[in-house]
Amino acid sequence: MTKVLEVRNLRTHFNTSKGTVKAVNGISYELEAGETLGIVGESGSGKSVGVMSLMKLIPMPPGEIVEGEAWFEGKDIFKMSESQLEDMRGNSMGMIFQDPMTSLNPIMTVGRQIGEALERHTKMTKDQVKNRTIELLELVGIPMAADRINNYPIQFSGGMRQRVMIAIGLACDPKLLIADEPTTALDVTIQAQITDLIAKLQKELGMSVIWITHDLGVVAGIADRVLVMYAGRIVEEATVEELFKNPRHPYTLGLLKSVPRVDADRPEKLQSIDGMPPDMTKELVGCPFYARCNYRTDKCLSQEPKLEEVGSKHRSACFVDVRSAKRTTENPYQQVTNL
Amino acid sequence: MNNSDTLPNKSPTKPKSNSILSSLLQDRFATISAVALIILIFTALFAPQISPYEPTKLDLLNRLIPPVIFSDGNSAHLLGTDSLGRDMLSRIIHGTRMSLTIGVVVVIMTGVFGTAIGMLAGYLGGRFDQIVMRFVDFQAAIPYFLLALTIMAAIGPGARNLVIVLTLISWPIFARYSRGIMLAVKREVYIEAARVSGTSEFRILLKHAFPNLASPIITLSTLELSRIILSEAGLSFIGLGVQPPDSAWGLMVAEAHDYVSTANWTITLPGLMVMITTLSINIFATWLRRVSDPVQRGRM
Amino acid sequence: MLNMLIKRLIHSILLIAAVVSVIFFTNFVLGDPVRAMLPAETPPEAVEQFREQMGFNRPISVQYYDYMINAFKGDFGDSWWQKTPALPIATRPLPATFQLGILAMIVAIGLGVPLGVLAARRPNSFLDRMATVTSLVGVSMPLIWLCPTIAYLVAVKTGILPTAGYGTWQHFVLPTLCLAALPLGRIVQITRAAMMDEMVKLYIVTARAKGLSNRVVMMRHALRNAILPVITESGWEFILVLSGYTIIVEMFFGWPGMGYMLYTSILLRDMPLLAATAFVIALVVVVINFLVDILYAIANPLIRYN
Would the N or C end of chain C have less CB density within 10 A of its end CB? Predict the structure, then answer.
């Protein structure tokens, strides 16, 4: 299997007047052709910034890719010129965003917005563009596509708008589709439709997908492999079965425990992870998860754990083996605030 | 605030000085404008004391003396004299008092009255709101200057009439603004909470709803002040505002109309004063808006 | 759509009626039209006789009704100055003002929008700060200072352009520049703010993710949306130009337009002429508002779907 994407040690910072926000702190991963990679994390974990950096879509100032390399289809992305990047965007690498309310131009027809991508990257004639647009709308499941290409986003429902978004992302047959929380702003039933749609399209078109979400349920449904991110770092990486069966990082454990389960024996109290992510403008010493970790040790305070193999295709960044270790503290976050 | 999510081994946070004064001083333009405004206010307050001559004192022997920086100026009249021999500096100082007084009085009256009406309209809704909106719509649709002009032409000029007319046509601006804010605030949960806990409507209005208005209304007031001063200058220029023998910048410009090429300072200096005043107010208002609205902070 | 147009029409008529009412109220109720018409030394009996003859002693509501009917027929009485019907006199200077006003707006928009876009493109750059300063100065500019200063510096000192009058293209230059100053300032402000509003929206990222160049994204996406508030504001600025700024500018440059007419009627205390002129200007305002609305509806397709 060929590697579609390879990322090495990516670091992205934002230089603001309140300090430098280290949004992404050295992440490395690979993606095979045809694979779906899920990236899970809370807000501020760097999951979005990480992939937006790949397309250099972050505002630069104040953003800055301070370190890192990324190869897409063998080509070094960060050495590309702006026009080469523009050739790549929307073409071999497509991206779709959350909140279709605001991620579509409100006063441009849906057909035009899709057609724009086609006009930019192909030499199709106007008629060909029109036909392909209708084709794409049908592909993403919008009924009466031919009638609707001259409609405006406001004339579609939320789920339909997201489908339009997907059509834009897929317009030029990308090798890699990046989906940044595409279902977060939609309700659950529509969510299922969209995830099914993307899975189906992926099989049909043979593309790779990176799916960013904070929702483990979504990940369980569509991903082959998962990256768990925290504080701009990858803290665990595994296949989806392995992650759910055998989580090794305390943060992953916390995430899994906080998902309500239908098959619980008796009503359990939902366990959340106390506290907040760390301030990303500060220099962090030790493990970034220390303040909220139930398994912490003194070593965790002074040294930052690196990602290490803990199983087949399974890496975790933690000094502690949570399978055997006892919880060393309860209410870790409150203890920190008392200091 | 940061201690809760930092580890004890991290470097302590240095508190940034965020007082209003320091953010004012960081912005050079805003500081200059603030200083200018202070000087203007001071001049207006102490006009009789600091003015070297009586502004109405005629001295026909000493007509049209240029300002002291010119070769034929003299130090008895730092800014020269006008066509009737009146000292320019004194007239300008008293003009400052006139314009600022009119401006501030109108802004205070419209501000208080307009904000109160708007607040009630937004909060109470219903018939009252509809009536108020009629006034607001009317005011917004008719060009301000034209309306002031037509009314002043009919009822007669003069500073007193000017203040009344400007107040009557400007209050809807405040009403609309405060009404808008009230409509948004009305739906806030804490209002509902206060109501449920038994607080009287009046107290709710005063203690919970009103504080939302304070900062935006202050910003609006500064903008309105510059507009009023510009309007007054324009109306006085046309002859429908402040009347002679009072001193007003617009009036001075009108009286000097014939001397554009021969005694340019008589027409330029008063006009310049209007410019400096409105510019300072606008710069200050811009800074004020930026400081009170976090969204705007990234803007300018 | 038609509904909206009819509502608009009614609204406009009511507005003009309101303006005429204000004119009536301030002249006939707050002021005494008889005393205004007659010389000061007229003996009281003659004044009363005149009052009766002209019908000024009728109940106010009757006078009001008559006045309004006449106004809508275009009859404001005879100008006290020229002794002929006021309205035709009032409309005569309209073309001169329109020429100046439209030219000024072309300058203001033609310079203002590009400047605003360029400023928004690179926030806090030199260009941006220049634009901010220019616009701030523009909106604070008193015409009573700008006009004489420009006239002096350019016309008097260099002599290449005339200081006053109407006739050749040279006469247009200075008045146009002065008249354009305030709208220019405002339009730069509005364009810049509107662009900055749009540039941080999510659809801009989507557009860039399609591989479109920065220029295309700015023009085809951001500006296209940002232009909407610019249209409304420009319309309003045009109205301010025609109903306020032009008075001062025309006075300084001896431009035979509506502003000059208004000023003359004030100077001569010619109430019918003043009323007629104000009426014409109000009418123009209403028409412009209407046209701006149509323009806006064309530019913003969403209007039709709400």
Answer: C
